[in-house]
């Protein structure tokens, strides 16, 4: 497995070329870019990013030896399952833009987020409309040849691995899979159990850590990698059982106590090295 970093981790004022240089210098193999609203950061893609701009971004990244591994977005916000047709149409346009960016930048897939409309609408309606939005893009996804991977986020939609697996299976597309976020389930479950349930559906992985307030369903907070309650050797062993050999992408944020960004990137890289080394020791 290789190390990647989501661009949200990077200082928002840092441009693409400098970001790629710093992330590579910190020891990462890849980076995940994001489609955001205009002005979100100096290294955000937007719905208006042109093909010419994408080619420049790719060239700047390749100059450092870094790989763009996937394209995420901050713009879903429940739109896939929205009762409003115009919001569902925006979600479709967002998937298309992410696929366009991924193809131009050499990434193998994108992250998208279904659900998130409860209690505005019934859960069953949210499920059906999110699925319908995805199904309407099936031929375009197949034509792209790129993964469209669904993430488990804190929007009340994927509250169990069985629900996530069922939704993916109902999408009935070999390129639709799971973008599994390890830290997002720790408050109420065990990530290694999710990985075993999702199995080969997992194409991409976000890593972050979470410290529980003692037990499951008692709250807690996100914390630095290797500082929480994630059993990393168990997580990596489960990923290997699932046949996963891709990038682990850190989706973490610099605490206010850390003054400089580059040393923070280095600390995240070292923590990921530790995670990978611990699993190797478990296997030895």
UniProtKB/TrEMBL annotation:
Domain Xylose isomerase-like TIM barrel positions: 20-256
Gene Ontology MF annotations: isomerase activity
Lineage: superkingdom: Bacteria
SUPFAM superfamilies, A to Z: Xylose isomerase-like
Keyword Isomerase assigned: yes
Keywords carried by this UniProt record: Isomerase
InterPro entries in alphabetical order: IolE/XylAMocC-like (IPR050312), Xyl_isomerase-like_sf (IPR036237), Xyl_isomerase-like_TIM-brl (IPR013022)
UniProt name for this protein: Sugar phosphate isomerase/epimerase
């Amino acid at each position: 497995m290789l190390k990647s970093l989501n661009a949200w981790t990077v200082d928002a004022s840092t441009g693409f070329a400098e970001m790629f240089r710093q992330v590579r210098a910190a020891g990462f193999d890849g980076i995940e870019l994001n489609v955001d609203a205009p002005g979100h950061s100096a290294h955000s893609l937007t719905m208006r990013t042109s093909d010419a701009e994408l080619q420049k971004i790719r060239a700047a990244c390749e100059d450092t030896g870094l790989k763009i591994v996937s394209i995420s977005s901050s713009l879903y916000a429940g739109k896939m399952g929205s009762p409003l047709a115009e919001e569902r149409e925006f979600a479709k346009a967002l998937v298309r833009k992410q696929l366009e960016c991924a193809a131009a930048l050499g990434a193998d897939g994108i992250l998208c987020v279904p659900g998130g409309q409860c209690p505005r609408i019934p859960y069953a309606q949210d499920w059906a409309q999110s699925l319908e939005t995805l199904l309407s893009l099936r031929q375009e996804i197949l034509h792209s040849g790129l993964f469209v991977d669904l993430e488990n986020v804190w929007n009340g939609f994927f509250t169990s691995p069985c629900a996530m697996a069922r939704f993916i299976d109902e999408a009935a597309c070999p390129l639709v899979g799971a973008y599994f976020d390890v830290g997002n389930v720790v408050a109420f479950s065990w990530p290694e159990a999710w990985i075993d349930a999702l199995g080969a559906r997992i194409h991409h992985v976000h890593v972050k850590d979470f410290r529980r307030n003692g037990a499951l369903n008692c709250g807690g907070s996100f914390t630095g990698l290797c500082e929480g309650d994630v059993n990393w050797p168990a997580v990596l062993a489960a990923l290997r059982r699932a046949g996963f050999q891709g990038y682990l992408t850190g989706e973490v944020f610099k605490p206010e106590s850390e003054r400089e960004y580059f040393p923070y990137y280095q600390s995240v890289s070292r923590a990921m090295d530790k995670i990978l080394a611990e699993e190797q020791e478990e296997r030895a």
